């Protein structure tokens, strides 16, 4: 099943993304896989590192593409 949330729920403000809002959607909808560009993955990782309170146990697969991804982020 696909989860298609509106941009505001996902945390988009223009082209910027709130990693915390994205993390809340992943946790609340028990997302199992997602496809992100490196910038959005960076926002998600920063949010998760900052609070360390998100349970991503449902997340099994994350694909990253669309731009060069720093090795440190992978």
Overview of the structural elements:
The protein has helices spanning 7-10, 19-28, 38-51, and strands at residues 12-13, 16-17, 33-36, 61-64. The model has no long low-confidence stretch (mean pLDDT 91). Helices cover 38% and strands 16% of the residues. The chain has 3 helices and 4 strands.
> What kind of sheet is the major sheet?
2 strands, antiparallel
Backbone shape:
globular
Radius of gyration: 12 Å
Provide the low-confidence segments as ranges: none
Our measurement of the CA-to-CA distance between the termini, rounded to an integer number of angstroms, reads 26 Å
Structural class: alpha+beta
Strand content is 15-25%
> What is the total tally of β strands?
4
Helix content: 25-40%
Mean pLDDT: 91
Major sheet strand order: 1-2
The string of secondary-structure elements, in order, is HEEHEHE
* Count of helical regions: 3
Summarize the structure.
The protein is α+β, with helices and mostly antiparallel strands.
Defining key terms:
two-stranded antiparallel ribbon, 74 residues, two-stranded parallel sheet, 16% strand, alpha+beta
SSE arrangement:
Blueprint: H1 7-10, E1 12-13, E2 16-17, H2 19-28, E3 33-36, H3 38-51, E4 61-64
